[in-house]
Sequence to fold (370 residues):
Amino acid sequence: MSQSLEESLETMAQSRIATPSFVFTRPNNTTQYSIGDLLSHHTSLATVAPYEWELPEWAKHIGGIIQRVYVAKSGDTTSNAGLSLFVYTQPIDVINAVDNTPWLSQARVWEDRTKFSAIIAGPTFVAGKTGSGAGGIVSSNQNVYFAPTLNNRLYVLPYYTQAYVPIANEEFYMKAFIVFP
Amino acid sequence: MYHKSAEKSAEILSMSKVYAAVCEMTRPANTTPYTGGDIWNDSNTVNPSPFIFQFPASWANANIWIPTIVIANNNPSAGNQFIFYFYSKYPDVIPLDNTNLSNQVSVHAPSLDEASYVHQLTTLTYATLTGNTNGRIIHTTTGNNSFPMHLSTDAKLYMLYRVQTDYAPLSNEKLYIRITGVRNYSQVL
Fold:
């Protein structure tokens, strides 16, 4: 009994950090993004779904802290590559935006108010600090608290905060370091 | 002794330390402009209410800090800034009656309720917000300004909402406020 308790205690203490991630590939075009435009691999209305940071099963209905966000991309363009992330604790329906169309001005913030968690000020890629050759990588400290989740997921919609010229089929990897106090 | 401590630790670790308390309020059916310093609540006739945030019953009398607040408003043109006044009991030194109706200059100075007053917090302005024509939303990370707040004996936090800058409201305009509270259990570990 005591052994089990100690093991449980150790497990619980160790399980308080999660590092979920997702990947996607943007469309096959080089159309410049405007400030506030959605970044997604979806190009058809009513098909856009938020990306998911899947948390451990025990994290269901628990709130936590997005301590750090890490973004990597296959393209090495750093100019105007600034992103921010809408984060929700429940899934939302994206009915009025697709990739490279306005999102910042179209988010249904009142309708989705109970699901909204945070807007994470985005990591900014900086030339010369993103690795060698192709690709870029950046991370930023956040310390953003989120309310208890509906299930063990956070839902994410990235958008550009700068007028970015992408490369075709650019790949993105977005990871969060999450602490549960 | 060790086992008892471990059991207690396990119990505490299993508790959720983060809780989101929500209060949504609808203002009166008029479009009377607010002037900086006015109170914002649900009545321009009788018995206006404070915002009330209910936390888990087990958090009664607890000290919490609130690192994050989400504020949504169904008025897309709202450009005002405002101040929250938080209380650990119903703010009733000056009764919330006809002296504190919506649109009236707030005379409910925190100092008059100092026994229960815990903190004031100036929020972001809606000018920095986003959203479509149906509303605006703020996500405020209060950081080091989120001083510990003491909850009431029934685990509530009360708040009065004062408009800081002039703005034109909607009739029956709605405010949704969610406070993410964090309880520190370490003192009982």
